[in-house]
Amino acid sequence: QNSMVLSAAIFITLIGLIIYLHFVKIDQESLLVIGSLGIQVTSAYASGKESTTFIEMGQVKDVVINEAIHMQKVIYYLCILLQDPEDPQGVSEVVPLFQVS
């Protein structure tokens, strides 16, 4: 009885660790900017999986350094402002970069 419970707990812990390494733990982030095409953001996870997002330059309104207050600290981070297709002066989305570091 106790060995079955212990085996199940170990199995569930291992599955949770594998899921964490595959979907959550980011090892490396990179940014490739090609002026005429767009911006490519790549995240490499601890399991070796890579996730790549491409943002066309026509969608980019601006690249800014934003600031936020977190736990009595001011944190600066790089963001891409995406242009609103309906309102050329507006911003449709703020995409933060390098969220892990």
Description:
There is one protein chain. With 101 residues, the chain is of the alpha+beta class. The protein has one domain (2-96). Helices cover 22% and strands 51% of the residues. The protein has 1 helix and 6 strands. It has a 3-stranded antiparallel beta sheet. Strand 1 and strand 2 form a beta hairpin. It is elongated. The chain starts with a helix and ends in a 5-residue tail after the last strand. The model has no long low-confidence stretch (mean pLDDT 89).
Low-confidence runs? none
Order of helices and strands: HEEEEEE
Portion of residues in helices?
A: 10-25%
Total of DSSP H or I helical runs spanning 4+ residues: 1
Coarse shape:
elongated
Radius of gyration equals 20 Å
**Mean pLDDT score:** 89
Features:
101 residues; 3-stranded antiparallel β-sheet; transferase activity
What does this entry show, briefly?
The protein is 22% helix and 51% strand. The chain is built from 1 helix and 6 strands.
Write the layout of secondary structure elements.
Blueprint: H1 2-23, E1 26-34, E2 38-45, E3 50-56, E4 60-70, E5 73-83, E6 91-96
Antiparallel strand pairs: 1-2, 2-3, 4-5, 5-6
